[in-house]
Amino acid sequence: MKQISRRHFMEAAAAGALSASVLPALSEAGEKPNKKPLYIAAYDTEAAECLAAVAKIVDVHKRYEMPATFFIVGKTLLANPGEYRRLLTNPLFEVASHTYTHGLLRDHPFGPPAVSDEEKRNEIFKSKTVIENILRQRCTGLRTPYGYDNGLKGDPKVLGLVKEAGYDYVSSLLWGPDCSQPALLADPFNYAADGFGELWELPGHGWHENLLTTNNGWGPRRLTLWPPIMPEAIPDKRVSTPREEFEVYKVFIEKARRDGNLFVSFIWHPWSLNKFDPEMKMLDLMFDYVRGLGIETGTYGQLYRRVTA
Questions:
Q1: Does the pLDDT at position 1 exceed 50?
Q2: Greatest extent of the chain over all pairs of C-alpha atoms, in Å
């Protein structure tokens, strides 16, 4: 399959084709969309500053009995193996890979160049080995650093490495059209068109919260589309409180419920959550809201098993 152009991706997304494209595959697998989306809390755990934040996040999850997927960088786990084993060895949590050093697997307009082919293999394979050896559980998923506006479509080399390493799914569609924010409510799809029908893409949605709260320190950047596809999800100013941040995410949950999406999951980073909201008030607001709606909660691994049932 050819890599989809940004222009065609934008046109397809605007027409709702991206969300609908998963439906034939799911129908063949006997799966039907739920009336309510599965909610998945997920965290890109990539830096030394994440450890103290993860301890706070885990406490909130335990209080709400809320599942989560932690995508962790191999070197980050190796730096504090005992602490992460204590925090994340819990039936509520799935631990998946965020590569070994956070090296990019494809070029990205806002990131450094992709690493070499040899380094890509190391990023993909070694992170899985580290997680499985330290946490003594199978690592089935990989989230790419930064993410992309078309996932890993059109990149059979990287897809081949992901499959060879033994992953079941990848989470790499993490941006909206033309590398814009927010990422749209895309449903899962497989990479059959690239020759990897057994490998599934499980996207992330909404804003990278470190960009929404400007914690990256990038300053003003070109991030949103004109005309916007989801104008209601683009605040007119920098969010300044946990409540304002929650209200942005709430838009996606409401839309996922209206449109019948299979799931909704946001792109959160522990270090950034802790920097903006050290008391984790936003998580309290989110989890209380989700529980009040009666929405089913789970992990990316559970979503994979659902779509391949």
A1: no
A2: 48
| Average pLDDT, integer, range 84-93 | 98
Contacts of 78 (CB under 8 A, 6+ apart): 130, 134
What is the CB neighbour count within 10 angstroms for residue 182? 27
Determine the pLDDT at residue 3. 38
pTM tops 0.85, yes or no: yes
Residues 32-307, CATH architecture: Alpha-Beta Barrel (3.20)
Instruction: With beta carbons less than 8 A apart as the criterion, state whether 99 and 73 touch.
Output: yes
9: closest CA among 147, 144, 150? Answer: 150
**179 in Cβ contact with 108 (< 8 Å):** yes
By DSSP bridging, strand 263-267 and strand 38-40 are parallel
Q: Which amino acid type is present at position 258?
A: R
> For residues 291 and 64, is the Cβ–Cβ distance under 8 A?
yes
Nearest to 18 by CA among 170, 189, 160: 189
Domain ranges of the chain: 32-307
